[in-house]
Design goal:
single chain, 29 helices, 70% helix, 1% strand
């Protein structure tokens, strides 16, 4: 007992010294600078905290360790606080960790509750981030033995548990969700097989050898469909927003967070706990927390995805708590809990620090400085966001002709930053079309992202486990428990349907002769993709093809069953999905785990024509980029788009185009030194390269 008291006193003393050290003015200044940069980076879709952390790392050479980690962790902790701003206002996730926020944040903005949604996001981010910092402070000495126990079998089991969330993220279309999740896993397997070097589904493209980057896929599947629907409906995101209503909404958002404090605590545990497991990735945390809230919160199945503030709270509290969790293995073992933590290890080496026991003994002051930096950064970040919320909320009232040109230009820049290859932009366009069709035909998109994030992890850990342990690892207690939980999660929708129909016999009796409906076209396309994937994988070596063939077979069965269900289920048993969301209502109403389209009031012909127009604009934008560069393209695109679609007056169009071009030049070219796609004009006339991005 005395030793425990002495240990607690020692740690409390170290925490107090660390706070005093961090409170020195120049260190607070660096912490604040990191917070501001993190918020800006979070607001800009596709850039992400990883790139910003890497760019700031060289500037920490001359700093002491306390100031260096204050700057870097200030940025890392507040990037997630800025992420929900574009997610709520435009349906464009600022980063992979805020994708789930779109599902309820954007519907709230559309009905004039942007202030409330943003406030709930800020406060839950603040509470989750502080909780993550608190967990870090308490967990490092306690979790050290537990973290050492986790091997590749346990990491595989955690990944399988994560992928089983497709059952929850599929809502009222479990077969479609399973097929989308399988498609995501197949996308994750594109590239060179790590076991044999076999090139899988690369289609002869050098760009795909290293796999498909997540950023263009994420922006394509989630961002472009929302921008397309803006053009299709030709409306603002929301009606008029009064400043008084925004401030009232801010206060309501704060009250929402305190009313749902236990949800925040649970989701923060999820965020911090999953964040502490290396290799699982931050992109999946918000979905796991969202799925947990969907299953545990009263009435969630009826309101989530339609503008329920609890969906925003669940996603954002877990997203911000992950930073503290990811620091646990980074500090204790030198194993980065995330990609940004891998860059942070560079700061350790630059300042002569060695992760491990030393960070818990002689360098404990520095460790607790990190804890305080994460906690204070979340408070500063939330305060800055609250100060500017009315201005952010007003963005939702802008006409689509004012929103689309600027957001499209930034989305293109964010997508190109993935691997800085033209292939990023082609993938952005392709997955944008796929994402829009999935949204129109009511295929859930979250399982696709979940499959992409976890697919490669599952295959890698499975081979490592088999190579090291044979099959004995299946009997390990943690592995067995997690696998059983995952299996139950996957079959739960089937068990629910059996119960709803009153038994298997009654469920199987509700079929008739097949009938075709246009909504089945996308399912037929998905069936063709699965068949093509199976046929092409058959020529690979055994080790390279075994997992892809198993996965593609599961996907083929899921799509075939979904198509059979759509074609043969009796009308009273089936909810037929049509383009624009036109449908017959199913007796048993379940949640559609994705945003529904706002185009239901338009005819199919109008939706198709305007959708083609949107993607036509994207193609023209890319051709112009190839010819004259991105910034000149953005300038001319603003003029053409606003005059053709508005038409907006020239006195607005020209200043808008000039300001956007200057903003891109100063922020991306001068400050962030973003490399630009090569242009034809710059290749043919090198003297023209004085023009930015040419």
């Amino acid at each position: 007992m005395e030793s425990f008291t002495a240990e607690a006193a020692f740690m409390a003393d170290a925490a107090g010294r660390a706070l005093v050290l961090l409170m020195e003015p120049h260190r607070l200044m660096f912490l604040s600078a990191g917070c501001v940069i993190g918020l800006v980076v979070g607001i800009i879709p596709g850039i992400g905290g990883i790139a910003a952390t890497a760019m700031l790392l060289p500037f920490t050479y001359a700093m002491d360790p306390y100031a260096a980690f204050a700057l870097l962790l200030g940025l890392g902790s507040t990037t997630a606080t800025g992420d929900p701003i574009p997610a709520v206002l435009f349906g464009v996730p600022g980063g992979a960790g805020s994708a789930a926020t779109v599902l309820d944040g954007l519907p709230m903005a559309k009905r004039g509750e942007a202030g409330r949604a943003l406030s709930a996001a800020y406060m839950s981010s603040l509470m989750g981030g502080v909780f993550g910092a608190l967990l870090l402070a308490l967990a490092i000495p306690i979790l050290r033995p537990a973290m050492l126990y986790l091997g590749s079998p346990e990491l595989l089991a955690f990944s399988v548990l994560g992928i089983s969330m497709v059952a929850i993220l599929s809502g009222n279309a479990p077969l479609r969700g399973l097929a989308a999740g399988v498609a995501g896993i197949m996308v994750a397997m594109i590239g060179s097989d790590p076991q044999t070097g076999t090139l899988r589904w690369t289609f002869g493209s050098l760009y795909l050898w290293d796999g498909l980057p997540l950023t263009p896929l994420l922006l394509g599947v989630f961002a472009l469909p929302e921008l397309c629907d803006l053009l299709v409906t030709r409306l603002a995101i929301s009606g008029k927003v009064q400043a008084a209503n925004v401030y009232k909404g801010q206060w309501q958002g704060v009250k929402d967070c305190f009313e749902n404090k236990w949800l925040i605590v649970r989701c923060s545990w999820i965020g911090a706990g999953i964040g502490a497991i290396p290799g699982l990735g931050s992109a999946v945390i918000d979905w796991l927390a969202y799925g947990h809230a969907l299953k545990t919160e009263k009435g969630a199945a009826e309101t989530f995805g339609k503008g329920d503030v609890r969906g925003v709270i669940a996603s954002e509290s877990s997203n911000n708590a992950k930073e503290g969790g990811a620091l646990v293995p980074t500090i204790a073992f030198g194993v980065p809990g995330s990609a940004s933590m891998a860059i942070l290890l560079g700061a350790f080496l630059m300042h002569g620090l060695v992760p491990g026991p030393d960070m818990l003994t002689k360098n404990l002051d520095i460790t607790y400085t990190m804890v305080w930096s994460v906690g204070l950064a979340n408070i500063l970040g939330a305060g800055l966001c609250y100060a500017f919320s009315p201005q952010f909320a007003k963005l939702a009232t802008l006409r689509y002709t004012l929103i689309l040109p600027a957001v499209l230009g930034i989305v293109y820049i964010g997508a190109f930053e993935a691997s800085r290859d033209w292939g990023d932009l082609y993938m952005l366009l392709f997955f944008g079309l796929v994402g829009w069709l999935m949204k129109q035909f009511r295929w859930p998109r979250p399982p696709l992202i979940l499959g992409v994030v976890l697919g490669d992890t599952i295959e890698r850990y499975m081979f490592i486990s088999i190579e090291r342990y044979g099959l004995t690892w299946l009997a390990r207690p943690v592995v067995a428990i997690l696998f059983l939980t995952a299996i139950f999660g996957l079959i739960r929708p089937l068990l629910q349907d059996i119960r709803i129909h009153g038994g298997i016999r009654k469920m199987l009796s509700g079929f008739q002769a097949p009938r075709f409906h246009p909504a089945q076209l996308f399912t037929i396309f998905a069936l063709g993709v699965m068949v093509a994937g199976l046929v092409s994988a058959n020529d690979w070596g055994f080790k390279a093809k075994i997992v892809p063939i198993v996965v593609a077979t599961i996907g083929l069965i899921a799509v075939a069953l979904s198509l059979f269900n759509d074609m043969c289920r009796k009308p009273e048993e089936l909810k037929e999905e049509g383009i624009g969301g036109q449908a017959q209502e199913k007796v048993e109403q379940k949640m559609h785990m994705d945003m529904t389209s706002d185009t239901g009031h338009l005819s199919v012909e109008t939706i198709a024509k305007r959708g083609m127009l949107f993607f036509g604009y994207l193609v023209v934008f890319m051709i112009s980029m190839w010819a004259i560069g991105l910034i000149p393209t953005a300038f001319f695109f603003v003029i053409v788009f606003m005059r053709v679609e508005g038409p907006e007056r020239w006195s607005l169009v020209i200043p808008y185009a000039v300001i956007l071009a200057l903003f891109m030049y100063f922020v991306f070219d001068q400050i962030m030194t973003v490399p630009w796609p090569a242009s034809l004009l710059g290749t043919w006339f090198p003297a023209m390269k004085f023009i930015p991005s040419v």
